[in-house]
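Page 47, continued from p. 46.
Same chain as before, 309 aa.
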Amino acid sequence: METNDFRHIPVLFNETIDSLNISPDGSYVDCTAGGGGHSGEVANRLTAGKLVVIDRDPEAIAALSKRFSSYNNVYIVKNNFFFIKSILRDLQIEAVDGILADLGVSSHQLDEASRGFSFHKDAPLDMRMSMEGRSAADAVNTLPYEELKKIIFEYGEEKFAPKIADAIVSARAVSPIRTTFELSDIISSAVPAAAKRNGHPARKTFQALRIYVNGELDGLTQAVTDMFDCLKPGGRLSIITFHSLEDRAVKAAFTPLAQGCTCPKNFPVCVCGKTPRAKLFKPVTPDADEISGNQRSRSAKLRTAEKLR
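Result:
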């Protein structure tokens, strides 16, 4: 694969760039840089500033290295943004003016059949963003029934999780499940016909397995808090989510940051000493034109928090 083939359509592009309130001499981090859509615009707006781009996908890192080869103020890091504090510490950066995270799977990962993320294309059942560690095939072939059911129910919000997990366990007893189409057919066989009218029956289970394999929700709320801690006063953290589980985790991190005094209303003076650490902006969603041009943007939501001075 050519490195310039890493395709990703950045969602809420203008809204996200605007939310960062970019200063030409500021310092910024793109935690999930992908093909460099958002970060490319950030870099173009900098003069004396610097940009750190992070991704754990080696194909993304190859594309980013090519895209930013002529920039001397862009630092490319192959890692998981969950470790943002140590990443910035290693770069000797104490704090930054803005941080962006575009959560979830990229267009490239979905469209590149060999990555095994999509139920629309037959390929080895992989789904690893980092291309390392346990794959989705490992999960469906080795996890016990109860754990599979829990993953599919909690991460996929799939009400047919017991039936699907049972079908997976029965199928793998006959032969290992190795491809996306094999798994998709097993899921389809377990879901009632009436439920198939509401979209592809494998969508929620594939989402659940992807989240599990990549640990996308494990510690996400803490990671958001760590990102906020890395901001300078006045700095902004902007996060794009694509499903309710991600959004709830981000909201759970943002809400206490904006909380002020918690003393009972009948107290004459504040004794708790708590003051808001952040200003939260109203969440932003795509307009009809963007959704029409990019159906994958329809569930996107942008939340922004500004660190108070």
